[in-house]
Design brief:
By secondary structure, the protein is α+β, with helices and mostly antiparallel strands. The protein contains nine helices and twelve strands. Strands 6, 7, 8, 9, 10, 11 and 12 form a seven-stranded mixed beta sheet that branches. Strands 2-1-5-4-3 form a five-stranded antiparallel beta sheet, with helices on both faces.
């Protein structure tokens, strides 16, 4: 809009300036030509009067002034013989006087106090006299002022029209891109059913819309195919996995009958089998989540009791000590909207990770961060490096555990599922540093309503 407005202003200003200068030149030249002819006629009348009745000259000059709106001065032998009532010798320059005295007819246009003055000097050799006539171009100045006013108004009007046209053109050109941007944002948030709708018949817009919709459709097909593949593979693995688990359980019952090498092999088998079982379960849940097979069951609940139940359930499931839940005094018991199953899975994974990799969870702390409830799971480990704080939420990322068989190993899917579940219920998760020096997994959930006890 600004570009169109400035362009229109520049072009209209140039056009108005050129028009004004051209019209001014034409009008001034025409007026000067008319006044010059009138001056010759007046000079002839003055010569006749000087021949016949010189005493009547002042009366004649005043008559000329009234008829032509000009001032007339008559000079003889370097002396001002007579002049009209409003005439002033200061309006006639020495240059003109010298030229006329030399016998040359002269005219000059000057500006005095922002007023245009046209001075004509004519020699009258027959009576050894010089006649000077000063024309005040008042009417012409008024006409030029009105013209300038209209030109300025026209430039302003053209600028406003240009800004309006620029705004209309810009909106028309940018609207399809805004629609694409909004649709892409919705798709990035998981709304894979989002499509663009053609609202105009423009060929370029229609082609963009069709290409975008085709791209999204193929992306959805690819995601669904990958999700089905992961789900099918996981289902197919469950049967032999169950057999392996049963066999390992039988071997564990007869552990004392095995040699030391056999017992060590059984330990490795049980550890890897546990990881394999967790991996298959995570893959199944991730596949169902990607395919949208498990709809959200959003409900409004009191946050403090929800967190306490989730922490208690996680500790019981994994047979570990229950970390304390600490509530900031100013927090109260705000309401949040969550899917209970997904939220409990989030807390279970975070507490289990703290137990496996960070010497357990120190505490689960609740506080308010603006209009959001902050749920902080603080562990007792060495913390997570800054460069890995985003990577740990990627699928199959396990950091140092991926290369060290001497420490507890996971599937690399737990935190990826945590982030998916948190985003699904409208929250965010990030990794900070806990007051004890370990890692802090902070979940932010929008507060629906404060319900202080």
């Amino acid at each position: 809009m600004i570009t169109f407005g400035l362009g229109a202003f520049l072009l209209s200003s140039i056009f108005a300036s050129l028009t004004y200068l051209g019209v001014r030149h034409v009008l001034v030249n025409d007026q000067q030509h008319t006044d010059l002819g009138q001056s010759y006629e007046n000079a002839a009348l003055i010569r006749s009067t000087l021949y016949t009745s010189p005493p009547e000259l002042p009366s004649l000059l005043n008559s000329i002034q009234s008829a032509t709106a000009s001032n007339v001065l008559v000079q003889t032998h370097h002396q001002w013989l007579s002049k009209s009532s409003d005439a002033a010798t200061a309006d006639v320059s020495n240059t003109i006087i010298a030229s006329v005295e030399a016998g040359h007819a002269t005219d000059q246009t000057i500006e005095v106090n922002n007023k245009i003055i046209f001075v004509v000097g004519l020699p009258v050799p027959a009576v050894e006299t010089q006649v000077y006539e000063v024309f005040q171009l008042t009417n012409l100045e008024h006409t030029l002022r009105v013209l300038l006013l209209y030109m300025g108004a026209g430039a302003i009007l053209t600028t406003l029209i240009g800004m309006g046209g620029g705004l209309w053109v810009t909106r028309r050109a940018i609207r399809p891109l805004l629609e694409v941007s909004e649709a892409a944002a919705l798709i990035a948030q998981g709304e894979l059913s989002t499509r663009l709708v053609v609202t105009r018949a423009d060929e370029e817009v229609q082609q963009l819309t069709e290409s975008f919709n085709l791209m999204v459709s193929r992306l959805v097909e690819r995601l669904e195919r990958d999700a089905r593949f992961a789900s099918d593979v996981s289902h197919e693995l469950r049967s032999p996995l169950t057999t392996l688990a049963t066999t390992a359980s039988v071997l564990q019952q007869h552990r004392e009958e095995l040699s030391s090498a056999g017992q060590e092999s059984l330990n490795l088998l049980l550890a890897d089998l546990s990881i394999f079982q967790a991996l298959v379960e995570d893959l199944l849940e991730m596949a169902r989540s990607d395919a949208g097979a498990v709809p959200l069951a959003i409900e409004t609940v009191k946050s403090v009791e929800l967190v306490r139940q989730s922490v208690r359930s996680a500790a019981t499931r994994h047979g570990i000590a229950e970390p304390p839940v600490q509530v900031d005094p100013d927090t109260g018991d705000p309401l949040v909207q969550v899917d209970r199953r997904r939220f409990e899975r989030v807390m279970t994974n975070l507490i289990d990770n703290a137990h496996r990799y960070a010497n357990g969870a120190v505490a689960v702390r609740l506080s308010l961060e603006g209009n959001a409830l902050a749920i902080n799971v603080d562990d007792n480990g060495a913390g997570i490096a800054l460069e890995e704080r985003e990577q740990v939420f990627e699928r199959f990322f396990r950091g140092r555990a991926a290369h060290d068989r001497g420490i507890a190993r996971g599937t690399g899917l737990g935190l990826a599922l945590v982030r998916d579940h948190v985003l699904a219920i409208g929250g965010t998760i990030q990794i900070l540093e806990s007051p004890e020096g370990g890692a802090r997994f902070q979940i932010l959930l929008p507060v629906v309503q404060d319900a202080h006890a």
